[in-house]
Amino acid sequence: MASPRGSSPYDHTFDVAQLAHIELMSPDPEGTERFFTEFLGMSVSERRGQSSYLRAYEEWYHHSLKITEAPEPGVGHIGWRTRSPEALARRIDALDQAGVAGAWLDDERGHGAAYRFALPSAQELELFWDVDYFDVPTDQKSGLLNRPQRRPARGIPVRRIDHVGITAPDVSANRAFFEDVLGFRTREFITTDDGAVTIGAWMSISQMVHELAMVADPQQLSGRFHHICYWYGIPQHCADAAELLREHGYTIECGPGKHGLAQGIYVYAIEPGGNRVELYGDTGYLIQDPAWEPLQWRESQIDWAKAVYGTVTDSFFEYCTPPVGTALPVAATSL
Amino acid sequence: MASPRGSSPYDHTFDVAQLAHIELMSPDPEGTERFFTEFLGMSVSERRGQSSYLRAYEEWYHHSLKITEAPEPGVGHIGWRTRSPEALARRIDALDQAGVAGAWLDDERGHGAAYRFALPSAQELELFWDVDYFDVPTDQKSGLLNRPQRRPARGIPVRRIDHVGITAPDVSANRAFFEDVLGFRTREFITTDDGAVTIGAWMSISQMVHELAMVADPQQLSGRFHHICYWYGIPQHCADAAELLREHGYTIECGPGKHGLAQGIYVYAIEPGGNRVELYGDTGYLIQDPAWEPLQWRESQIDWAKAVYGTVTDSFFEYCTPPVGTALPVAATSL
Amino acid sequence: MASPRGSSPYDHTFDVAQLAHIELMSPDPEGTERFFTEFLGMSVSERRGQSSYLRAYEEWYHHSLKITEAPEPGVGHIGWRTRSPEALARRIDALDQAGVAGAWLDDERGHGAAYRFALPSAQELELFWDVDYFDVPTDQKSGLLNRPQRRPARGIPVRRIDHVGITAPDVSANRAFFEDVLGFRTREFITTDDGAVTIGAWMSISQMVHELAMVADPQQLSGRFHHICYWYGIPQHCADAAELLREHGYTIECGPGKHGLAQGIYVYAIEPGGNRVELYGDTGYLIQDPAWEPLQWRESQIDWAKAVYGTVTDSFFEYCTPPVGTALPVAATSL
Amino acid sequence: MASPRGSSPYDHTFDVAQLAHIELMSPDPEGTERFFTEFLGMSVSERRGQSSYLRAYEEWYHHSLKITEAPEPGVGHIGWRTRSPEALARRIDALDQAGVAGAWLDDERGHGAAYRFALPSAQELELFWDVDYFDVPTDQKSGLLNRPQRRPARGIPVRRIDHVGITAPDVSANRAFFEDVLGFRTREFITTDDGAVTIGAWMSISQMVHELAMVADPQQLSGRFHHICYWYGIPQHCADAAELLREHGYTIECGPGKHGLAQGIYVYAIEPGGNRVELYGDTGYLIQDPAWEPLQWRESQIDWAKAVYGTVTDSFFEYCTPPVGTALPVAATSL
């Protein structure tokens, strides 16, 4: 099912084209919105009901972030755009064939009809084709045709959403679902030394190493969220954001550093609602070899996978949202 | 022909997967090799006949650069890997249907049989599927599974090839060829203000804005080369390379700066053989919208297209290789 | 007089301790203030009469910039703090002995009594000892004891004033005045190839290569201003500022680049009042050798003095304020 | 004695002008030399007896680092240049008056007669005036008059020595010695919350926050060495050096990060001989206020003092050389 139309294993088509948006649940929606607007430079496209919709200045669509008030932090749903209307139809067929139930949602903001369904690990995903392009006011337009809006003079402004991280009680089952039903490819993964258990998987639908990161849920629970990642492209901006956020009272969990896995230059903060936010200073490496085989890291190699430089704290593996008896991460600098 | 298998204009397949290598002609092959090895940190995989084959430390294949001794600088050929054996076959069919003659070459170094043919603008291209992965000596291997070789302690080492730039007497004809016959997509282009003449086109086969840049040949000649680009991913490395190269007697034509077009952070040097080399400090933006329409810059907007900051000198538009009565560029700092 | 108390030429004391503030004249004081606050992250300490007083977030005093409404751009005066009350007295003695008339001003904002006098090139300077430390509101204080105020989430915030640039009809006369009467030292200078005429001099009162830059006035006029420089310490911030300012309609005259002279990493913008503003991304090199001899650049070496990389445009040598029949600089990217 | 000639407490003269060189003891002198030459880009000026002498490419003197073979790592001596011959005489007088015995050494390499004496904490210091400037071969000279040698195409080359760190059983006693006898000034210091015990002191003889760092010896021992620091000026180079060194088998103890104290951007590595080496990516802030009072950090504020971002590991406070029953630091990434 991974390559429905090609005769060769390399002749694969990614029907899912991009990570389009994430709905974050927040017990402090005003704090969460302020974090993303005043400090990460995002703009509110719309507020409606219990939710606000935000976009970064290099994003063309209505939003990449939906913040919804809720008793606990976590992820509401994760939205993906397909590469064509036909690709959407093919993936719904694949879901049907895999026995996955879903439902059409017609009244969401920012895009057309979306097909909503649950992962084996219970988080909700949606697929859609039609999108609303955001109409940037003329006085905010850039001289750059490839940038919908001028770089804002506010915070350390992120440019676009990069990837999402979730946890799963059974990473292998989730991985198989993403590969077989949704057509993702695994780019790197971590297993126990004997290879029996997959601890994490980094999967993509493009040259990027991952639009999706999955790690084993520390309490074997389902439905939980690990992090949302926005992209800078400039490594220095990770340090700038860390300094700015910390001075203004936010927790920098770890970084800046450079992950070995995917080679991403990172910093992790905790937003006021309690969710983890990664900021990406470089794209890491891009996969151009069409015959790329998934890279398998063994647990004994995890030190290199975690970081070329900088640290990844224990809380990174222990805290996810909603937390279940887990304390909020403290800053690496306080350890 | 652009979308041979899909019913939707969005359901496009890129049969050409990646820019694999470039053959540079050099009247000073030792100087050219020294430039790429001592100062850009590349390694020689093999020397054979009049040619040497080089790769960067994050490249897995045998080479991305072939340097061949010749009376004049310029490009020998440009090698592209397809996404599968089937994709290769499909593209040869498309070439046949377009009436483009080609020939199989079976004895090249570093890859399997390649189909060689000429562009409307006369540069030679080749397509192939099979590649030789370079066998990095154990003592040079990295702790990073996604990096074939340790970062060398030599020069300001580039990580991988990024894109190629050529000139054409008729950019529109070349663009149509790449779109219709080879399945590339145009991401950005520049025209006269009335839209009648295309001055340049930036085309890609992936999320990247371009693996191929084409600009109007300043003397309406065919077969000429504009630049080869290697990638750092770290903007500071453009400045480091500029400082290092200049101190060691090389010409920095222009930059560091940031192009508006593609948003690439750049610096341009002239290697001892006379060819222009671009170094890329950032990936620029990535295209994730499957419905992306080519962005049309008008000549009156060219100032933004050229640079957000930094300069692009006149020689950039006047010098290409082999030069025909054109002087070597001088450094922007000397203007 | 250069070494009034020491028996050795090396046993020199700098009585002037630091560049404390600059008064910029502006025909558009609101635009000028907005430039420094919204885009360079400075704060207004006080507005009074036709002037506003601003400071950067790592500055402890009341202000480093006074903006005063005036028909034309230019410099009002340049304020220097001495190293002690005794040092102030010594320098006033030296001025008296040199026949330079001055006057005490007792009612300026932000510091105690200041002794005001004119340079040979007619710009007004003042020397003082007492300063007012700015009382940062508690909720804006940093966790860093060495930083009076948290890094603002606004613009690309500068950290402190770095140096000032003026023009002079006779650079040598000015240089002698600064050396002999005020105790500055020349660190680097540029002369004609025969050494007969000094075109520019970079002078300091510390390890820094310059707190004062002087270049020959392009029209042999007196009293004119070349630039004010604020400091980042992070090279990337020059690029960030250039991109931000340009997108918001400001002129980037040249840079980012790296001057050879002083090795400063720079970008130059024109503020709305018409004055040139330099932003410094690195400190350049520091002078630690107590026997440092002034470095003499000949005009034929000026290409290296101007830039290691990046460009310095002709307008840099032609435009100063108030302008006299000289057009505003245009961006280097538009050349 | 701190201000021997001035009537005001501000009218202070620094008789010691600069940290000139450090002698590192190494049980693996070849490994130590290779670390500093192949990876930090330094050059060997001379080898003689059991020692080699190295300099960085922006250093004018014969050496800033002397590596001497020894059974254990540690510091041989620390050399300081005075500001004049008179200043040297004044400091020897001060040492005499303080009852500190010393001896003249006339046959050292790279400088004239030096006066050698021991600190209260037993490390050996020397003071001298005359220095030998290194004669850089013509073909290695830079086009920059302010740079004695071209930037080497080797490793991530450091530019100059920055500061030295030692431990002391009684930091207060050492601090008093440096202030009263040698004329240093304390810029920042850390005490217990009640202020009774000084845990560390950062002292300088210039605008820099420190040429000398002192921390409490973890085992109350004397004569031990904490770290030598070389300077880049470019924050990215800390990350580059960390990546390069780690890939080639060296231990990165902690960083890259930004200390709160002094605001230095840092990374710490352990060289093959076992000594700690800091690399400085920024100068931190400069002290320009002549009335600067030492900043007192309380132990409860140490988290901010340690790092704005990044981590400082426990080993940083526990390991110094020669080690006494202390294991070599492991990389922060392995914790």
SSE map:
Four copies of one chain form a homotetramer.
Chain A: E1 16-26, H1 29-39, E2 43-48, E3 51-55, E4 65-69, E5 74-82, H2 85-97, E6 102-105, E7 114-118, E8 124-128, E9 160-168, H3 171-180, E10 185-191, E11 198-204, E12 212-216, E13 225-231, H4 235-247, E14 251-258, E15 265-270, E16 276-280, E17 295-298, H5 302-306, H6 315-318
Parallel strand pairs in A: 1-4, 5-8, 9-12, 10-17, 13-16
Antiparallel strand pairs in A: 1-5, 2-3, 3-4, 6-7, 7-8, 9-13, 10-11, 11-12, 14-15, 15-16
Description:
The structure is a homotetramer of 335-residue chains. In chain A, the strands form 2 sheets. Chain A has a 9-stranded mixed sheet with strand order 14-15-16-13-9-12-11-10-17. In chain A, strands 2-3-4-1-5-8-7-6 form an 8-stranded mixed sheet, with helices on one face. The longest helix of chain A has 13 residues. The N terminus of chain A is likely disordered. Helices cover 17% and strands 32% of the residues of chain A. Chain A is α/β, with parallel strands linked by helices and 335 residues long. Chain A has one domain: 2,3-Dihydroxybiphenyl 1,2-Dioxygenase, domain 1 (Roll), CATH 3.10.180. The termini of chain A are far apart. Chains C and D meet through helix 2 and strand 17 of C and helix 2 and strand 17 of D.
